[in-house]
Design brief:
By secondary structure, the chain is mainly alpha-helical. The chain has helices spanning 6-16, 24-47, 51-76, 84-97, 103-114, 137-142, 145-161, 165-182, 189-207, 215-241, 258-264, 273-279, 285-290, 299-313, 322-334, and strands at residues 248-249, 268-270, 319-321, 339-340. α3 (51-76) packs across α10. This is NADPH-dependent stearoyl-CoA 9-desaturase.
């Protein structure tokens, strides 16, 4: 970024205030809560026959899984610690070991593609769900016949189709990793490490439980956990970029104003103390997209600073309630968004001109 750009000025303000400091022990404490919650849920599920205990136990497992997932997301940005091995531990624990998602796939999908190009049609895969779903008007009008009918009615089927969300990510991550391993020019030790941890997932989550329970029961638990996490992942990540307020843009806008690109395509959502714990900072998506390496424990403190800067210099800064943002995410499947050919121009307050 140019030294005199709005983004550079905002970044320098936050760095001068000390927000570059990591908070590893706080995040480690949260991670212990999530792991403990998951273990307690698994233990209760395995030892109780009461339906209500099992229901609460499964809810505890999903809440723990949400926290571990967002913790791994933070680690992928090296925002937990300045020590690479610390971040790698939490990343590999949360994704390949806990969720059966390749860490290298996540880095490519999220860090390399999504963050520099949020909601850029034709670049950001998170904004491209075709041919299954259409998120923009161009995709809707490009097809005919039964495919057009499906897109016109996709909102009806979204709640049912979401059950496969986590399974699709697992499949894509395995395909990505196996292709890298098959190519001598691309594979590295990190890919082999990824594969090893993915296999460890099967040993711990399937092999060991089969010593105490039937294979059918273990696989049913695994399928139910993945299905529930499909909805949890939508709740965590969709509200940031799917609502109509988060615009879709043509790839020609990539050389434009970085601060505008991030704020025009992203919105925050509000939540309470428990939600903030589970979300691990993803509720402050604007701050996260602008400063992904800053500890999410700082986001609540820097949010008023970022909002004030955006208001004064003419950049959008939108916040919705969590359930409101999820609802608006669903609405997009009924009313796909328009793809804009240019980013908005900043509109500073008159006193700033």
């Amino acid at each position: 970024m140019p030294a005199n750009s709005d983004f550079a000025r905002l970044r320098n303000t936050l760095m001068a205030a000390g927000f570059s400091e990591r908070t590893p022990w706080a995040i480690f404490g949260e991670w212990l809560v999530f792991v403990g919650l998951t273990i307690a849920g698994v233990a209760a599920l395995a030892t109780s026959d009461a339906w209500w205990v099992r229901l609460l136990a499964f809810a505890a497992i999903i809440m723990g899984s949400m926290g571990i997932t967002t913790n791994a997301h933070t680690a992928s940005h090296h925002a937990i610690s300045k020590r690479r091995w610390v971040n790698d531990f939490f990343l590999y624990f949360g994704y390949p070991f806990f969720s059966q998602v390749s860490a290298n796939y996540w880095r490519q999908k999220h860090l390399v593609i999504h963050h520099p190009h949020p909601n850029i049609v034709g670049v950001d895969n998170d904004a491209n769900l075709a041919p299954v779903f259409a998120l923009n008007q161009s995709e809707l009008h490009r097809v005919r016949g039964l495919h057009r009918w499906w897109y016109a009615h996709q909102g009806y089927f979204l709640p049912l189709m979401l059950v496969g969300n986590a399974f699709g990510v697992v499949f894509q991550s395995w395909r990505y990793l196996l292709r890298r391993l098959a190519d001598p020019a691309k594979r590295t030790r990190a890919h082999w490490a990824d594969l090893s941890v993915l296999m460890l997932h099967w040993v711990v989550w399937v092999g060991v439980p089969c010593l105490f329970f039937t294979l059918e029961a273990v696989l049913m638990f695994t399928l139910l956990r993945y299905a529930a996490m499909s909805y949890a992942a939508f709740a965590l990540f969709a509200p940031a970029h799917y609502p109509a307020a988060a615009g879709l843009y043509d790839r020609s806008t990539l050389n434009g104003n970085f601060l505008m690109l991030q704020t025009a395509t992203t919105i925050n959502f509000r939540t309470g103390p428990v939600g903030r714990l589970l979300c691990g900072g993803v509720e402050y998506q604007i701050e996260h997209h602008l400063f992904p390496s800053i500890s999410p424990r700082h986001y609540r403190a820097i949010s008023p600073i970022v909002k004030r800067f955006c208001d004064e210099h003419g950049y959008p800064y939108r916040t919705e309630g969590w359930f409101e943002a999820m609802w608006h995410s669903f609405v997009t499947f009924w009313r796909p968004k328009v793809v804009h050919a240019a980013l908005p121009e900043p509109e500073p307050r008159r006193s700033q001109r």
